[in-house]
Amino acid sequence: MEDCCRTCMPCLGCMWNCIWPEFHYPNVPINDDTGATRRPADIRTISGDISVPSPKKRPVQLYAALFDFEARSEEELTVKEGDKLSVIEKRGDYVLAKKLTGSLESGLVPANYVAILQDEFAKHKWYYGNINRGKAETLLLASQNQDGSFLVRISESHSDEYTISARSEGKVYHFRIQRSSIGAYFVSDKLSFGTLGELINYYQNNSRSLGVPLGLPCAQQRELFDMEPWERPREEFQLHRKLGEGHFGAVWEATWTTEHRKVAIKMLKQEDTKQDEFVKEVQALKSLHHPKLIQLLALCSRGEPVYIVTELMSKGSLKAYLASPEGQVLKSAHLIYMGSQVAEGMAYLEDRHIVHRDLAARNILVAEDLVCKVADFGLARIIKDSVYTASRSTKIPVRWTAPEAALHQRFSVKSDVWSFGVLLYEMMSRGKMPYDGKSNKEVLELLASGFRLPSPARCPQNIYRIMLDCWAPEALKRPSFHALHSQLDSIYVGLLK
Question: Which annotated residues bind ATP (predicted)?
Fold first, then answer.
């Protein structure tokens, strides 16, 4: 393997002052493989059909106006402080925004007049996040709850929608909350609301409209639910086969015997972990719930090796999947669909200021119907630096790492964005190694000269442009994951028209 980071990085520290001279874009061949009709066909392979679900137009992240703004031309939009908006795109010092209530007008608003609304629902006692239907029913039917008790959870089938679960006459009823094309919330298409809170408040005061009363939120405290014991005895798990080896240890397919389910287990050596950070970090990771993040299920931290137990994804890592016969024949639209899911999961981490540090195809897992989930988020922080950066037997992720992080350990959401650009390269090249044949030192020297990875064969021009945006020299000029998700989603929707 290449020179390890410890030997090559210190002598390159002086490169930082000249790391971005004359940054240049390589020539971009316009080459798309989606066909004249611009509609990706399902692919027949030895393992069956690869199909992509029809896309739903996902609402753009919710924003709010910080100040009143009076339009001065027909292109601008008048907004009042507190107005809920969806931001369609950024245009210089302005954003093109659309109102979510009232006139539903759109127009330009100064960018510094709007702000993203993060963790919008966390403050509500009725919001339980990513729990399933069965768990919701168990909670609501507990003795401390009565008719009228309810909670709101993320939809199991639609990650950008929600479900009201309400108890009435000793039973639990479920109502799907859908999203309109502009991001409004509705149960009935006759009534829509700018926020989820407004919808719940309405049905609490108008029970006949829903058919069941909404009274008090579910009595069981979410904090108690979230802190259920998750340290499990090692004997509960039966290992079956080794799925792969990553930077942080081996991954095995296993059966969780007491839960009667298949799981994946990542094994770590205790000597490789920062013990003072381990439990705190894994507890923090377990509190994250999103359909595009691998869910942590349990931990075996007593004895060797440490088990980190997660849900099992049937097709394994994206890196292995891209190298498979099935992965090699994926169309651009399939890959864009998968990339959009990764960006969606990373946007959730971005909102919570969580830095992945090792975003790459090997840490994306794939299930049926090309469902993708981000794995190993935050794990780099609990691994000893000597293991993460200096082991000669480990493929150091320099080629996925932003220069400011590789040289000076300045990890941030924006260094993750750089890594996402490299991940897109892996995907569009159907698994090609970035900077193939180059050592870590040579990679950093290439970046110092202004070089960027060339466009993969058959990569659409607009996707390569997104890669280049992710590799902007200045971290602050790289797009957000919310913007990347929106762009990829829009491109995918356009391919299917």
Answer: 266
